[in-house]
Specification:
Elements lengths: L9 H22 L8 H9 L12 H10 L6 H23 L5 H13 L5 H4 L3 H22 L2 H17 L4 H13 L1 H7 L2 H23 L3 H7 L6 H27 L14 H6 L3 H24 L11 H11 L3 H24 L1 H11 L2 H4 L2 H16 L5 E5 L1 H10 L4 E3 L14 H7 L1 E6 L3 H11 L6 E8 L6 E9 L5
Parallel strand pairs: 1-2, 1-3
Antiparallel strand pairs: 3-5, 4-5
């Protein structure tokens, strides 16, 4: 048992982060029968390998990162979960360096522990998508914003500008962070001097120039991601109020594990206040501390305002990065004496938590299969292997063909196939006009896949087939993971056409 008053330094923090990455990877690998329940992760890859400056739902960076990762590592669930876990680990690394500016070594360790037990930064991180991809970038932005406030080095300004663009190229929701920091930079007299200095100018110019290629893509593609985002909300005051209530309740619920962790550092009658609010007064004394108060206190209100103005749905899942600031700020509310005396209790509980999530993973996998969810239990890898065999037979296994059909099936086949292929985004030549047209579609050859009972999908792929009379139609069946249900598929395959 670690002694009372022990200081947990750099090595302890890094070892815990490494344990977290390993535990999260193992938990995901052992608990899931498919990558994720909604097909987002396969979609990320299918978009990324197109290497476009944007896609019809989202900006491109998180897809590029996935494609880059799998240009080095094998395409498998394990390596995808490892990538997602490293993304979460990078978030912890930046959060730790932020915390280093505001408290003792034990405070820094507590912030890392709190981030690990908050579901938004751990379990949600398993499903890598635009939401979770933002977390390390947001943390890095705030870190370099602090570095700018401290020393105003131009290299930091360049990095901050690039990070700001990276955030926006990941998801436009990142405007919430940039507006929050802009409000601080304008409202705070010390920060305002830096904003109006060469540092602020360099950061702004670099960010604008880096964003320009994506903006040009938006113009040429009718601002498709913005239109898509605008269409997601249902609208209406009543709907917004209900969503707001659920959102705020979700924020509180997600932070409860961190509160429980803080409780382990306390004892009845220890003489410390329940929350150390005097720390907030201390933060107001420095420009960095005031930046943290804005970061932790404004991202949620700005999120709510943006959602109201845009008529968009409020969702905790879509606002995952806000928890970065909440855990750093929450750590300041824990009495520092309690952290110095009893942090070992919280650390042991966090380590037990990592052991438990690995131990229960196989049990969760069984429950997930029993639940019978649509994309959770469909044999997507097996389906892809069958399609590869058909492609070998009918097209001699050539690369660079086009995949279309039901998005979950098409994107999953793109990911699991042993061939290099591209996906027809939205099954539309208009949406995919930047890289494929009807002539190129026929020239490359294609594989179109649906479930046999999905009449709308079947009608759509028959239309995509066009006048390719040489195309082959194949029907096949596959059992689910327990051999109880049979999934029935139909594929249309057309081999590449010679010029």
């Amino acid at each position: 048992m670690m002694g009372i008053g022990k200081q947990f330094g750099q090595r302890a923090v890094l070892l815990f982060m490494g344990a977290f990455v390993i535990a999260l990877t193992l938990h995901a690998t052992l608990s899931r029968v498919n990558l994720d329940g909604y097909g987002d992760m396969a979609e990320n890859y299918a978009w990324g390998v197109l290497w476009q400056w944007g896609y019809f739902k989202h900006p491109p960076l998180f897809g590029w990162l996935v494609a880059g990762w799998f240009s080095i590592f094998p395409k498998s669930d394990f390596f995808y979960y490892l990538f997602a876990s490293i993304n979460a680990g990078a978030t912890l690394l930046f959060v730790w360096r932020i915390a280093a500016r505001f408290g003792s070594k034990n405070y820094q360790m507590f912030v890392v522990l709190a981030a690990v037990v908050v579901p938004a930064l751990s379990f949600q991180a398993i499903k890598y998508n635009a939401n979770t991809a933002m977390t390390p970038i947001w943390a890095a932005i705030f870190l370099f914003y602090l570095r700018g406030l401290e020393k105003q080095r131009l290299l930091d300004a360049v990095i901050l500008g690039l990070l700001a663009t990276a955030a926006m190229l990941t998801k436009y929701y990142s405007a919430v962070l940039l507006v929050t920091l802009l409000i601080h930079a304008i409202a705070d007299a010390e920060a305002r001097k830096i904003l109006m200095s060469k540092f602020g100018a360099v950061a702004a110019v670099v960010s604008i120039l880096a964003f320009l290629p994506h903006f040009i893509w938006l113009v040429h593609n009718d601002f498709m991601p913005i239109v898509y985002a605008d269409e997601q909300g249902e609208g209406g005051i009543k709907t917004f109020i209900v969503a707001l209530f659920k959102f705020l309740l979700g924020v509180v619920g997600y932070m409860l594990p961190a509160l429980g962790l803080a409780g382990l550092t306390r004892r009845p009658g220890d003489g410390y206040p329940l929350f150390w609010f005097s720390s907030l007064t201390e933060l107001r004394q420095t420009v960095e501390g005031r930046a943290l108060l804005y970061f932790g206190g404004l991202t949620i209100p700005v999120t709510i305002v943006f959602a109201a103005l845009a008529g968009a749905d409020l969702s905790v899942v879509w606002a995952i990065p806000v928890f970065l600031s909440l855990v750093v700020l929450f750590g300041k509310l824990v009495p520092p004496q309690a952290l110095e005396q009893r942090l070992s209790s919280a650390l042991l509980m966090a380590l037990a938590y990592l052991v438990i999530i690995v131990a229960i993973a196989p049990l969760l996998k069984g429950q997930l299969t029993d639940r019978g969810g649509y994309s959770k239990t469909m044999p997507l890898q097996q389906m892809s292997a069958v399609l590869d065999d058909y492609w070998d037979k009918y097209a001699a296994g050539s690369d660079n063909f086009v995949i279309g059909g039901e998005p979950l099936l098409a994107n999953s086949y793109n990911f699991y196939s042993r061939y290099k292929a591209i996906t027809l985004e939205g099954n539309s030549f208009e949406i995919s006009k930047g890289y494929i047209d009807r002539q190129g579609f026929d020239h490359r050859g294609f594989v179109l896949i649906c479930q046999q009972e999905d009449r709308n999908c079947l009608e759509m792929i028959n239309g995509l087939r066009g006048n390719r009379r040489d195309a082959f139609v194949v029907d096949f069946k596959l059992p689910d993971f327990k051999g109880v249900k049979t999934w029935q598929f139909r594929a249309i395959l057309a081999s590449p056409q010679k010029p």
